[in-house]
Amino acid sequence: MVDEVSSRGGILWEADPSEPTHAADAAGMPENKGFLRPVNISSSLFFESAAEIFARVHREIRPRTVVPPIDAVYKKFVDPNSRIRLEGGRITVTITDLLEGAPAPVTEALAHILLNKLYRKPVSAQHQHRYRLYLNRRDMRNRIDLMRQSRGRKAHTGPVGGTHDLVAIFEDLNTKHFGGMMARPELGWSHIRSRTRLGHFDPSHNTIMLSRIFDDPRAPRLALEYVMFHEMLHLRYPVDHSGSRRCVHTQEFKAHEKQFPDFKEAKALLRKLW
Ligand SMILES: [Zn+2]
Questions:
Q1: Residue 3: pLDDT band by 50, 70, 90 thresholds?
Q2: In which band, very low, low, confident or very high, does the pLDDT at 153 lie, cut at 50, 70 and 90?
Q3: Which of 118, 151, 184 is where one domain is finished?
Q4: 175: CA distance to ligand 1 center in Å?
């Protein structure tokens, strides 16, 4: 997919490795021909910075034009794309950090792709192909998958639901049961209406997450409050989870939990979920 995004009057192009090489198809090129044949790589074998590579490719593409100042930085993105922007006479390239340390010919191929797209010129099949082949290698695909997992969307959708606001629920319980002294962690509703995981405290992200099943007018507030209280006790009585993902309830945890008013009624409500 090629994306043109206007941003503050600038032009931004993205190179996406999943984009099919239409140019290669059109030229009827065999799959790996572009990769095997070296294309203008001799000059890039020296230690050029990414900005220098982009400037050199710019001179190649637009020989009669003065090369504008070019900034090239590596940046963490959720996707494996890189972006180019022309704004105020400057070119800014943000390259996915996946390509940090990539062989110079790959950076050069990316420069051809982004600069040609910026100037609305066709991208040669060879450069498209070399770039795609590199990102399609198994090790790179694994890194892309990991990156999408770890940098992807948040595990929850924030504290404000359609029916309940988790911040209000938390602070209410905080005042009633903890003297208002508990530091509020990140709070959020799960994406799915889980019946098996009603609540969860994630110490590594300091987040309490509640099942979206409680964000429902049919859900008794007592049930929601009880689950929140339970997760707050996990904050109050931290356990060394070293390696184990079990939910650990110590004796003092259980004793404190029983102090919750209507404890039995709340537990009973959870047994017959709406
Ligand atoms: Zn628990």
A1: very low
A2: low
A3: 151
A4: 21
Residues spanned by the domain of 247: 166-271
Given CA atoms 250, 254, 260, 266 in this order, what sign does their dihedral have? positive
Sign of CA dihedral 175, 179, 184, 187: negative
Q: Is residue 158 part of a domain?
A: no
- What is the total count of domains within the chain? 2
Q: Are residues 208 and 85 in the same domain?
A: no
202 Cα: distance to centroid of ligand 1 (angstroms)? 11
Neighbours of ion ligand 1 (CB under 5 A): 247
Give the closest residue to 214 by CA, choosing from 223, 206, 205: 223
How many angstroms is it from 254 CA to the middle of ligand 1?
10
Ligand 1 center–CA 267 separation, angstroms: 13
Q: What is the pLDDT of residues 32-42, one digit of tens each?
A: 344 444 445 44
- Alpha-carbon span 119 to 67, nearest angstrom: 13
Report if residue 177 sits inside a domain.
Answer: yes
- 183 and 79: one domain? no
Boundary residue ending a domain (151, 186, 203): 151
